[in-house]
Design goal:
CATH superfamily: Alpha/Beta hydrolase fold, catalytic domain
CATH class: Alpha Beta
Strand order of the largest sheet: 1-2-4-3-5-6-7-8
Protein name: Alpha/beta hydrolase
CATH architecture: 3-Layer(aba) Sandwich
Keywords: Hydrolase
GO molecular function, one term: hydrolase activity
Helix content: 25-40%
Oligomer: single chain
InterPro entries: AB_hydrolase_1, AB_hydrolase_fold, Carboxylesterase_BioH
Structural class: alpha/beta
Pfam family, one: Abhydrolase_1
């Protein structure tokens, strides 16, 4: 194989968040309508690599993914060693809006998966005027705890391998070994306690069941795409959101799991591309 560069460009954004300086890693490719992509808990923006390398997407869209603070190539703030990382819905929302402002994104499409899929429901409810459309992947209004989070941050347990083991069953059974293990590698590389801190939002603070029916799709279209092989956000959870939100669009994607954009990009794009056509 001849050497080649991918079209993706990465840069570091210095941004003040919560009265502290942050160094946030941002990748992008393509041009046109901004498509802001939010990664899952404990992982990073590499999950959207396939979208940034697909001309069917990048010819019309500026695809952008940033690593949240503490994740991927983004650094935690100075003094991180003296605190416990714990993500809240208010912090998550503020972070996304501040990154949008810094990048001068005018009404982007926002797409998030898992915790990203949950927070886009908050954005649809609280800030619909800021977005052209909202796409939730594996988006449910809540999730019932099904394992002890304390195992994710213990000195006698390998945190990265434990995180990957916990999510390994969420990958669809038809994913290739290459895509499956790349997806799991992102989890193996997570910082100590970061996955656990993200799940505070996912399992506790981000529960939006009491408010999700208030989303007004006349202000911003809402599209929900969920893989059928997922016990973290089961299809029934996504369908419950769709049934609660008048005017929303929902597709349950056959043979896909919790990480559709990284576990089987081709199959995922067969569902995403028609949605992008409807938006544009």
């Amino acid at each position: 194989m001849s050497p080649r560069f991918e079209p993706t460009i990465g840069r570091y954004l210095h941004l003040e968040l919560f009265e502290r300086e942050h160094r946030i890693y941002v990748e992008e490719a393509g041009q046109g309508t901004p498509l802001l992509c939010l990664h899952t808990a404990g992982a990073d923006g590499r999950q959207y690599r396939a979208l940034m390398n697909d001309e069917r997407v990048t010819l019309k869209h500026r695809v952008i993914a940033f690593d949240m603070p503490w994740h991927g190539k983004s650094s935690p703030p100075v003094g991180w060693h003296n605190e416990e990382y714990r993500l809240t819905s208010a912090q998550f929302t503020t972070m996304i809006l501040e990154v949008m402002t810094a990048l001068e994104l005018d009404k982007p499409i926002v797409m998030g998966c898992s915790i990203g899929g949950r927070i886009v429901l908050h954005l649809a409810l609280e800030h619909p005027e800021r977005f052209r459309a909202i796409i939730g992947l594996q988006a449910g209004a809540h999730v019932d705890p099904y394992y002890d989070l304390n195992f994710l941050h213990r000195p006698d347990v390998h945190g990265g391998e434990t995180c990957a083991a916990i999510v390994s069953g969420l990958v669809g059974p038809d994913a290739s070994d290459a895509h499956r293990w790349e997806t799991l590698w992102h989890y193996m590389q997570g910082g100590p306690g970061v996955f656990k801190g993200d799940l505070y939002f996912y399992k506790v603070d981000g529960d939006i069941r009491a408010r999700v029916a208030q989303i007004d799709t006349s202000k911003c279209p809402l599209f929900l795409l969920s893989g059928e092989y997922d016990y973290s956000c089961a299809p029934e959870e996504t369908l419950a959101v769709a049934n609660s939100v008048k005017g929303s669009h929902v597709t349950i994607m056959k043979d896909l799991g919790h990480f559709p954009m990284s576990e089987d990009p081709d199959k995922f794009l067969s569902h995403l591309l028609p949605v992008l056509e409807k938006i544009n």
